[in-house]
Design brief:
Blueprint (H helix, E strand, L loop, with lengths): L14 E7 L4 H6 L7 H6 L4 H17 L7 H8 L6 E5 H8 L12 H11 L6 E6 L8 E8 L3 E9 H6 L9
């Protein structure tokens, strides 16, 4: 049956979240050859800054509305602590779309291998870029695995969360600022 292969299209796919502190995201434009500028610059051609931010935030909302999007609650606290407002959140699909020039919507395309490749070019300092990688729920197992990476320092933490726990969570962490 093709249904086993269609699990990604039923809301169970790998994804990533890239967290850029301050102007760390600008190093992508400065050090990586791309076909297009970063998304905020692209959107600024059509929209004011507030509208562009709202449009980019829709991707975050989409991610968190899915059950497996709520996996990021725990790793988000590890990645940025209480400093969420110091970071710009970019979905890995958006990062891959700009850096690679293509995005298949598959989190395995924009995982830690992409982060390491970007680090070679951008040379971020510790804490400037953090990334959260979430794996899909394995067939027959009631959990999702996740990892938190720092661009410079590598793996910071890894863990898992049960699907049952995700069902109890709201889309956005209640204890974040």
């Amino acid at each position: 049956s093709f249904l086993c292969g269609m699990r990604f299209y039923a809301g169970n796919w790998a994804y990533s979240i890239y967290l850029f502190k301050g102007d760390a995201e600008q190093k992508i434009d400065e050090h990586i050859t791309k076909t297009a500028p970063l998304l905020p610059q692209q959107l600024s051609l059509l929209y004011d800054e507030k509208t562009a931010d709202a449009l980019l935030s829709r991707v975050i909302s989409f991610r968190l509305m899915h059950l497996h999007g709520r996996v990021c609650h725990d790793p988000l606290k590890i990645a940025v602590g209480d400093n969420i407002d110091e970071y710009v959140w970019r979905d890995g699909e958006l990062v891959a779309g700009v850096v690679l020039g293509w995005n298949f919507g598959d989190g395995h395309l924009h995982n830690e291998h992409l982060l390491r490749s970007m680090q070679k070019r951008c040379n971020w300092e510790s804490g400037e870029v953090r990334a959260i990688y979430v794996d899909p729920q394995p067939m027959g197992r009631p959990f999702h695995n996740w990892r938190v990476f720092d661009a410079k320092d590598g793996l910071i933490a890894e863990g898992s969360v049960t699907v049952e726990e995700l069902r109890q969570r709201q889309p956005y962490p209640e204890n974040m600022n």
